[in-house]
Amino acid sequence: TLLGHSFEEAWSSAAQELTRWQDQPDRVRRIDVRSAWGRFPPVSLERSDQPSSTLPAGTGAAIEAELGALLAAQTAAAQAKLRGLEQVVQAKGPSGALLNEKGMLLAALGRLAEARSEFEQSLKLGSPPASALNNLGNLQMIEEQAGQALETYGKALDESEAVPAIHRNAALAAYASGNE
Questions:
Q1: Distances (CA, A) of 47 to 7, 28, 43, 106, 138
Q2: Which of 2, 35, 123, 164 lies 20 to 30 Å from 9 when distance is taken between CA atoms?
Q3: Cα 84 to Cα 29: distance, rounded to the nearest angstrom
Q4: Cβ 106 vs Cβ 118: under 8 Å
Q5: Handedness of CA 22, 25, 27, 30 (dihedral sign)
Q6: What is the DSSP-derived secondary structure letter of residue 160?
Q7: Are 149 and 123 within 8 A, CB to CB?
Q8: How much is the pTM?
Q9: Helices (H) and strands (E) in the chain, counts
Q10: pLDDT tens per residue, range 68-126
Q11: Furthest-apart CA pair in the chain: how many Å?
């Protein structure tokens, strides 16, 4: 590394050197770092009780505040979209696809019981069954009912085997339920 320079500057310098020698591959070769340490031990990697972070004081609180603001914005956007969707349902009447979408928004807002009701209703109204069943399985996974979720994903796959996300979800449910 370059003493007195950042890690990024050291890598940038190394990349420039490698580019300079690219037409002479016999002059540049890879080094096994662990073997090199046996002969030339690193001198600047001592253990320390001091935190390794060099972030300025207050950075953690600032990050938490930013994340809180992002979460609040995401929640507000989902609530606004939910209100708009409810207006469409009132104007046009419920459909399976609209209720399925409403269920996804409710789940994102943490309103799981309402989401479950919307998914079940969407199935009755002709929502694409694979989508609604996949969403029901997702709720069951959130509620730590992996065995039940696996059955639900199986039903979704019976409806449509062409959706990779359902296969992935079924595999995760199988793993979570100990059925590897």
A1: 18, 32, 11, 49, 44
A2: 35
A3: 61
A4: yes
A5: positive
A6: -
A7: no
A8: 0.64
A9: 8, 0
A10: 999 999 999 999 999 999 999 999 999 999 999 999 999 999 999 999 999 999 999 98
A11: 77
Minimal CA–CA distance to 177: which of 152, 153, 144? Answer: 144
pLDDT at 47: 64
Q: Of 138, 100, 105, which is closest to residue 119 (Cα–Cα)?
A: 100
Other CB atoms within a 10 A radius of the CB of residue 103 amount to 28
- Integer angstrom CA distances of residue 142 from 31, 77, 97: 47, 22, 22
Two structure tokens written together for 113: 């019981």
| Residue written as token pair 């709720």 | 139
Place of tokens 């807002």: 109
Token output for 98: 């609209």
User: Of the segments 39-43, 45-49, 55-59, 107-111, which one has the largest average pLDDT value?
Assistant: 107-111
